[in-house]
Specification:
Layout lengths: L7 H7 L3 H9 L6 H11 L5 H9 L10 H6 L10 H16 L12 H11 L4 H23 L1
Helix pairs in contact: 1-8, 2-3, 3-8, 6-7
């Protein structure tokens, strides 16, 4: 049996961090899908500040859907519903002022109220706790995207 493999292009589409992609590629071929996902999970647990910046550069703000993938992941958020767009814009602005980067959350499977609740909660994090939450959410997004690509 040949094993499970992926490409660098696919990996960078999941998480735009070259070191992470290289770490995952180095373990190929994997025995099965689960082994590949476990390796990807492990490699994404720690990101340098530069890697975090690289990864965030490709993510649109919540409510400002980017490409087809982001639109699908944010499908539970309808900016046209009620005051959602206004609340998201205000929350995004407050977050960016507080932390100096775009608010990132695994939006897949979450609705606007849940995302806004998380945004409000995370505005009270200290810098270290918030950085850890951002890395964790990036890892979750990367794994969902990688799993969908297999």
């Amino acid at each position: 049996m040949p094993g499970v493999t992926t490409t660098r292009e696919t990996l960078l589409g999941c998480l735009s961090v070259p070191r992470w992609a290289d770490d995952v590629l180095a373990g190929q071929p994997y025995a099965d899908r689960q082994a590949l996902l476990l390796a990807a999970n492990s490699a994404a647990r720690e990101l340098t500040d530069e890697e975090l910046d690289q990864a965030l550069a490709s993510h649109p703000r919540i409510g400002e859907r980017g490409g087809a993938r982001s639109q699908s992941e944010q499908s539970g958020v309808d900016p046209a519903a009620g005051d959602t767009a206004q609340r998201l814009a205000a929350g995004n602005a407050a977050y960016e002022q507080r932390f100096g980067r775009v608010f990132l959350i695994r939006a897949a499977g979450r609705d606007a109220d849940e995302i806004l609740g998380e945004l409000d909660r995370r505005l009270h994090n200290d810098d270290r706790a918030e950085r850890a939450e951002v890395v964790d959410n990036l890892r979750e997004i990367a794994l969902l995207r990688l799993d969908a690509s297999l």
